[in-house]
Design brief:
The chain is an alpha/beta fold. The protein has 2 domains: 207 residues, Quinone Oxidoreductase, Chain A, domain 1, CATH 3.90.180; 129 residues, Rossmann fold, CATH 3.40.50.720. The chain contains 13 helices and 16 strands. Strands 3, 5, 6, 7, 8, 15 and 16 form a 7-stranded mixed β-sheet that branches. A 6-stranded parallel β-sheet has the order 11-10-9-12-13-14, with helices on both faces. A 3-stranded antiparallel β-sheet has the order 2-1-4, covered by helices on one side. It is globular and about 65 Å long.
Length: 353
């Protein structure tokens, strides 16, 4: 193996460069993983969220190629998923279940990232959130583990009761995840809302019982029409716009839950009527990222065939075409999960295409 490797480095939304970097060296208790595939995340398109040049991607699946002294739970040749951020046990926030909000969580990163030929896995990653993958989970499906574990994490705090009507505002890749996984938490009717008929059609494939395009229909009237005059028990808003949050709030029934599935840009106001906020008894929840308990649960659901991970993949790119892959992600039209392959697109995928 050479000691340099190809990496895709993000300098700006419209500036993705292919660069040679050293293959990371591992230490005691660490592993080196060959990246087989890595998904691209919509979060990487939010300019305010990215503060410095970085290796693109944080949704990798790979093969162990080197293990450090003291590593006993994994072997060379194992196919693994590694969460890019991992928490710790011994902190106030972690002990209260908020692993991802402990500042330690974001200090733990893959070295140097996901869209590169190899990455280093730290001892803390190995201890907290590294998983040997079952054979029936494909590499393509495995790239959904990190993002849709975040979906699963969010659904845990929505307090969905069996038979509840759940609405999802925004049917991009993450919205499709909420549509797809909501029935696993007891949802009855699942309603997807989006301005794109193409995305609404995909939502039907992922389990939406109803769809609404607010561009052509009054969303509140449409919701009441399909739900016996009631609004939704839980509304999940993925679209990162204050107008979408306001639309979502209008769709929540008294006593229901509004889940904020993505952040607004910093310094963006979202104002509620204080009188209504008291009397509507609507619970507002949010959940940042996923922790080790979420990924463990998601992998078991994926292995059991409850989740259509492969079906969520819309595009495949070689690492040399990372800039084009990212452009498609930013465009956010007819695409869902986009995968980049640092060692080339597998022949079976190219043949299928």
């Amino acid at each position: 193996m050479t000691r340099t490797m190809k990496t895709a480095v993000q300098y700006a939304i419209d500036d993705i460069r292919l660069e040679e970097k050293p293959v990371p060296e591992i230490g005691t208790g660490e592993m080196l993983v060959k990246t087989l595939a890595c998904g691209l995340c919509g979060g990487e398109t939010m300019a305010w969220y990215k503060t410095e040049p970085k290796v693109l991607g944080h949704e990798p699946v790979g093969e162990v190629v080197e293990i450090g002294t003291g590593v006993t739970d994994f072997s060379v040749g194992d196919r693994v998923f590694v969460n890019h951020h991992v928490g710790r046990i011994n902190s106030h926030l972690s002990r209260r279940g908020h692993f991802t909000r402990d500042p330690f969580y974001k200090t733990m990163k893959l070295d140097p990232g996901g869209v590169c030929e190899y990455f280093r896995v730290t001892a803390q990653h190995l201890a907290m959130d590294t998983h040997r993958l079952p054979e029936n989970i494909s590499n393509a499906a495995a790239v959904t583990i990190e993002p849709w574990s975040c979906v699963l994490s969010g659904l845990k705090v929505c307090n969905i009761q069996p038979g509840d009507t759940v609405a999802v505002v925004g049917a991009g890749f993450m919205g499709q995840g909420f549509v797809h996984l909501a029935p696993l938490f007891g949802a009855g009717k699942v309603v997807a809302l989006d301005f794109s008929d193409w995305r609404l059609e995909r939502a039907r494939e992922f389990g939406a019982t109803h769809t609404i395009n607010p561009k052509s229909d009054d969303a509140v009237e449409a919701m009441r029409s399909l739900n016996h005059g009631r609004l939704a028990d839980t509304v999940i808003v993925i679209a990162p716009f204050a107008s979408a949050w306001e639309q979502a709030l209008q769709l929540v029934e008294t006593g229901g839950c509004l889940h904020l599935g993505a952040p607004l840009p910093p310094d963006t106001d979202w104002v509620r009527d204080g009188n209504a906020a008291y009397f509507d008894q609507i619970t507002v929840t949010s959940r940042y990222s996923s922790d080790h308990t979420d990924t463990y649960s998601y992998i078991r659901l994926l292995e059991a065939g409850r989740i259509k991970g492969d079906q969520a993949i819309s595009h495949h790119f070689d690492i040399k075409d990372s800039a084009e892959a990212f452009r498609l992600l930013v465009e956010a039209e007819k695409s869902l999960k986009i995968i980049v392959y640092p060692h080339g697109i597998p022949s079976e995928i190219e043949e299928a295409a």
